[in-house]
Structure formats: C-alpha cells, structure tokens
Design brief:
Blueprint: H1 3-6, H2 9-35, E1 40-44, E2 49-52, H3 54-61, H4 65-68, H5 82-97, E3 101-109, E4 115-126, E5 132-141, H6 143-165, E6 169-173, E7 179-182, H7 184-189, H8 195-202, H9 213-225, E8 230-237, E9 243-254, E10 260-269, H10 271-319
Antiparallel strand pairs: 1-2, 1-5, 3-4, 4-5, 6-7, 6-10, 8-9, 9-10
C-alpha cells in the first residue's frame, strides 16, 4: 500500500488544519498588499513574479494579477519593452550576486502610457538555508517631487540671474554684523571687483561700510522692532574712503518658528539723484533771488518814471 493509502483519517484532518491557516494567512497578506497604494512585487530567483499588489498590476503593467504571476520580465512584452526588461534583469542579477538592498530612481512607462518617475526600494529575501531566494520591491511615485524640483531649479536660476544682474546692491547679514552674501552690484557699489573681495575685506564688520558707524546700530533697532520692511537714506563708505548716499531697504528673515534669522535687503545708490536734487534746489534759490532782484528793479523804475512824469507835468503847468 502507498503512503497515501496508509494515511489515517486523523492525518488528513491534521493536514487540513495546517493548510487552512496557511490559506487564511495568504489571503490576509494579499489583502494587505492590495490596500497599499504603492506598487509592490516579489519574484523568485529565476525572475518569475510570485506575487504583486493591485497598484503594481493595474498602474504599472495594466494587467490582471493572474496574468502576471509566474511570468518573467521577458514574458510580458506588451507591458515591459524588451530594452527595459533587459535593464531590470541585469539589476536583479546584481542583487543576487551581492545580496542586500538597492535604492535607485528610474523613469517608468505606466499602463496609461505616461512616463513617471519612481523611487525603487528592492531587497533580497532568503530561503531556509540562508541563500537568496528572491527579490521584493516597492515603488514610490516621485513624479510630482521631480516636477517640483525642476520648477525649483528654474526658480533658483531666475533668482540667480536677477541676483547677479540687477543694478541694486542686494545683501544678507546677521544682526551682529557678519555679511553672509552680496551680489556683484553691491560689491561694485562699495568699490570691490567681486563679492568675494568684499567678503574677504569686510568679513564680520558690516559696520565698516557705513560712513557713520552709529547708523548701523540705529538701522538694526529699526529692523528688529518693525513689523514691516524699513526704508531709510543712509551715508555709506566706499573702499577708497569716499562716501555715497544709499536708499536703504531692509527686512527680517525668520524661520518657521518665527525666530529672527538674519537681515536681508538692498541698497540703491542715489548719489547722482541727490546731487541733481541739490543742483535743482540751488537753481531754484538763484531763480528766486533773481526774481526778487527783478521785482526790486521794476519797483525802482516805476518810482523813477513816476517822479519824472510828476516833475515834467509841474513844469508844464507852471509854464502855462
């Protein structure tokens, strides 16, 4: 008699009791996997898919799970192009050679035909003898993050061009006078060829840029106590010791906890405008002076003509 024929009813019942929890556990695991929004898959050492969740089947491959299980990368050409299948197979082989984990980003053409960026986290799992038995992988859609990073890079590039090309002198400094960053216009405004030259020469002595050191202390008090940006005219000192007038704008930069981090702002060199305004005031003063002299001269001329007319008329009347 065979082993099967000699098994007692109690053996069959024991096997059934053992298989039932296994099936239940498998159903629970599949249910849990299907509730995960990230695509998940696992393969055996030969590269055959042993399981996956709905997100992987529907979003990535666009196939029912039953059509995926038992297939290799090369068995699904309608979902995985040949060049990608070869790439993924090489990556899997590398993992079996050096068991562990892999982290990488890759662009994937999804079932809807749209190429999206995914972050892959793959790891090998072991058999009872401690040898790599297969690979489990989790995919995280980072398309929005990649788009945000691209938009941020564009924004940073626009800001960099503005920062470097604008004629206003832009700066960042700490409250105690350490200059953190300046743009080329700021350096040239103070007589330095480059921002690095200014930072090397001035360092943590921002007060050296003021014609009157007391002005910086006054400005710091205004900035730290004001809720809005401040605007004030200030005299500054160039590298050669000459001074100029700057239209100074500054505000506080804070962190998420509303703590003061540093001072930021810009300076507009208004020396030529101030000189023009001074010249205009002098011209107006000269014009007022000349106007007053002209009025005096006109008044004197009227009196002289009046006297002459009076005298001539008196003589004529006397003669008559």
């Amino acid at each position: 008699m065979t082993d099967k024929q000699t098994r007692s009813p109690s053996d069959k019942k024991g096997r059934q009791r053992h298989e039932k929890p296994t099936r239940v556990n498998k159903m629970i695991m599949e249910t849990l996997l299907d509730t995960i929004p990230n695509p998940v898959f696992y393969k055996d050492r030969e590269g055959r898919y042993q399981g996956c969740n709905l997100a992987f089947a529907e979003q990535i491959l666009g196939l029912p799970k039953s059509s995926i299980i038992g297939c290799t990368l090369f068995d699904l050409p309608q979902a995985i192009p040949g060049h990608l299948a070869e790439l993924y197979a090489r990556q899997d082989a590398t993992m079996f050679e050096d068991a562990g984990t892999q982290f990488f980003e890759s662009e994937v053409q999804c079932a809807d035909g749209i190429r999206r960026h995914f972050f892959f986290n793959k790891a090998t799992f072991m058999d009872t003898s401690g040898q790599p038995a297969g690979i489990v992988g989790v995919m995280l859609d980072i398309t929005e993050r990649k788009h945000a990073e691209a938009a941020l890079r564009k924004s940073e590039e626009r800001f960099r061009r503005f920062f470097e090309d604008v004629s206003l002198g832009i700066f960042q400094s700490t409250e105690d006078g350490v200059i953190m960053n300046v743009n080329p216009a700021f350096a040239q405004m103070f007589g330095y060829a480059t921002p690095l030259d200014l930072l090397a020469a001035v360092g943590n002595e921002a007060v050296a840029l003021y014609a009157d050191p007391r002005d910086r202390r006054r400005i710091i008090r205004l900035v730290t106590t004001s809720k809005a940006p401040i605007k004030i005219e200030t005299r500054f000192r160039r590298r050669d010791g000459s001074s100029f007038t700057g239209d100074f704008h500054a505000w506080k930069v804070k962190d998420r906890e509303n703590r003061f981090l540093y001072l930021e702002g810009f300076i507009d060199d208004i020396t030529e405008r101030k000189q023009f305004e001074e010249s205009l005031r002098e011209s107006e003063n000269r014009l007022r002076f000349l106007s007053s002299k002209l009025l005096v001269a006109q008044e004197e001329e009227r009196r002289r003509i009046s006297l002459e007319l009076h005298d001539d008329l008196g003589q004529d009347l006397a003669a008559l």
